[in-house]
Amino acid sequence: MITFAPLWKTAAQKGITTYTLRFKYGMSHATVQRLQTDMPVSTHTLNKICQIMNCSLYEIAEYIPDSTDMPVK
């Protein structure tokens, strides 16, 4: 599963709130909610967040394997 827990840590360090993402940077409320609940988002959204926060992808998302993940062959 992909988790966006690192996003909120990075955002806090940089003084960026969900309000800032929505109103200063034009991110939709639905997208912010998807991030908060670890739902899928587009690579466009991930790119935009990296640009906003001037950070790398690993600073906003993390892969955590769970028991339902099937190995790729």
Secondary-structure blueprint:
Elements: E1 2-3, H1 5-14, H2 18-24, H3 29-36, H4 43-53, E2 62-63
Antiparallel strand pairs: 1-2
Low-confidence stretches: none
State the CATH superfamily name. Answer: lambda repressor-like DNA-binding domains
So how many helices?
Answer: 4
How would you spell out the order of helices and strands?
Answer: EHHHHE
By DSSP, the count of extended strands is: 2
Beta percentage is 5-15%
Describe this structure in words.
- The protein has one domain (2-63): Orthogonal Bundle (434 Repressor (Amino-terminal Domain)).
- 49% of the residues lie in helices and 5% in strands.
- The protein has 4 helices and 2 strands, in the order E-H-H-H-H-E.
- The protein is elongated.
- The two termini are 18 Å apart.
- The mean pLDDT is 94.
Keywords:
73 residues; mainly alpha; 434 Repressor (Amino-terminal Domain); two-stranded antiparallel ribbon; 4 helices; 5% strand; elongated
Kindly summarize this structure in a few lines.
The protein is mainly alpha-helical. The chain contains four helices and two strands.
